Fold this protein.
Amino acid sequence: MTDVPKILHAPPSAAAPLTDESEGMRYLERLPRKLVTVYLPLGIIILVLLFPFYWMTVTAIKPKEHLLDLDSHSPFYTLSPTLDHIVDLLFKTDYPLWLWNTMMISVVATVLALLASVFAAYAIVRIRYRGAQWVGGLIFLAYLVPPSILFIPLSTVIFEYGLFDTPFALILTYPTILIPFSTWLLMGYFKTIPYELEECALIDGASRWQILWKIVLPLAVPGLISAGIFCLTLCWNEFIYALTFINSTQHKTVPVAIVTAFTDGDQYRWGSLMAGALVGSLPLVILYSFFVEHYVSAMTGAVKE
Amino acid sequence: MPEAVIREPAAAITAPSLWSRLKVNRDWLGAWFMLPAAAFLVLFLAYPLALGIAYSFTDARIGQDIWSAPWAGIDNYLWLIEDDPFLLAVFNTLFYTFVASVLKFAIGLYLAILLNNHLPFRAIIRAIVLVPFIVPTVLSAIAFWWIFDPQFSIVSWSLRQMGVISTNIDFLGDPWNARWSVIFANVWRGVPFIAITLLAGLQTVPPSLYEAATIDGASRWQMFRYITYPLLTPIIAVVMTFSVLFTFTDFQLIKVLTNGGPAGATELMATLSFNRAILGGQRIGEGAAISTAMIPFLLACILISWFGLQRRKWQQGEAND
């Protein structure tokens, strides 16, 4: 109905450079068509992607007697939410300890990995020693070596070094997963920093060390945040090393502990399991919500570079 | 006064000590800067990788180091090649990887194209889409465990209420149901990663190409086939390599959801090697042989990725830097 006037009133795009905000060919799309081809499938996919979390949350706050009784109360919502499961989790189990272990190990491993990666990336991109490109390629290859083929020999190595069943077993092995990724990402960031800045500093008598700390790093803060957030989620997510190298309950991390803790023989305590999964994911999701853009740039940067 | 200023640098030039020459030597500096990363990667990645291959030729038990382990030659491999659970695990791994990767790619690309439309609140939608990828796999696997419960599954219940089925679906108890259930969970977790990375690729495609194609009368499919797809190929190659690699070596999801059951129907090579080497008989040698058997496949993936990267450089005329 309003086809013609719309075209006539299309904003003159010659005045401004073409950006995402310009109308482009969008005037060709009509709402009803878009409703079926875009919004409906998108809605379905998002529903499926989010349902497990919704279900997790609902289960975590349902009273115990409603959990296994799907027929007398609608299972999709609860009118009498309770914090029983979460209270049980926090005060009757070692859950806070596991959460602390997870956080401590993730943060320390991330910091170690970032430090090592900053030096490595700077050396590969800017010091350009002989064979730097080869080393860059090798680091990319290291990224492609999955933990599931390393954990068996690594467990004997950990045993030999006397690290078995200590937090150090994880703190020292996690960086091997993180360093290749973050080095690769930081190399991309360092490349964007103009050479001239460093040359000026060199002329002024700065050492490489000073250049790295006082010029390059402050400029690469977004890259550091991206790498840090991504590393943190990788550590939090890690399972196979934590399962293999840690034996005693008080050293376990959340993912490993939770699977064994809430199953009394054949009886699963679904409420506590779901509460545990929910509480274990929340810190990451909250952190993520503050740094979405950094996280996305880390993910795409690692692929694009 | 001017004389003093001139004399100062002259003195410095005459005596460049070994130390001051080393300080500006690129190789020397580079070696020191590489040291921390190299130490981690050699001690905990390269060394175990080599050690694992060495172990696969021995009959080592847990706690035995490589030198005291009895040498077994290729016995482990000869034994594995006739070992039915191993062959089943190889089949499961290939099936799981292939089906899950194809589904992840198809749905991920579709989702990326949907998100590339002009949408209100696109940033928020993108953030939401990525949540399954943020939440640790084990924790979302626990949610799926509950969703796939044989008695109290919400899916069975809903379908029963709608009258589609009369008895509960045994999601994880029946071999094929279990395979499809773990594939579903894997796809669910993998789609966001693929969609968001491909979306980043899509956003670099200049809109003017689509405008030109529209004027030339191209259909939507032709635009996809002749503009989007060729420009996206390099990034697809890399993303899918990662996806295939991590699906092939998947461990967490299977360990939590089925632990390889029922009757080995969802046992993957990674979980089998864990069961053989760490749990069960603690036969490190055999477990290492299973892990080593995964390496040829990984190499194939890496080569594909390598050529994907090369092709991208070639397309963009980028110097090898």
